[in-house]
Predict the structure.
Amino acid sequence: MSEEIEQEQSDEVTLRVDWVFPENIQSRYANNVLVQIGPHEFIISFFEMQLPTLFGNPEDNKAKFKEMGEIRADCVSKIIVPLNLYRDLSMHYKPS
């Protein structure tokens, strides 16, 4: 009897999720991540950095890197997640 009452009082409906990976989805390589937390969202930006190809000796290559001053990191994906979903995910993550 109590189970029937709970079902009548609940406005929730459980639906199965049909996970779809479109055929044209692109996978990208990311070797750097930037994480930001906003007032209502958790923002994860993924970047790919490509080091220049240098053929000099170690001292020359080091000098070239110092001369460059910076290296370009291209954002390949930006994911915005509501904070409550992030909290739910982080509770289930257990580092090994």
The first strand starts at residue 32 and ends at 37. The chain has one domain: 21-92. The chain is about 30% helix and 25% strand.
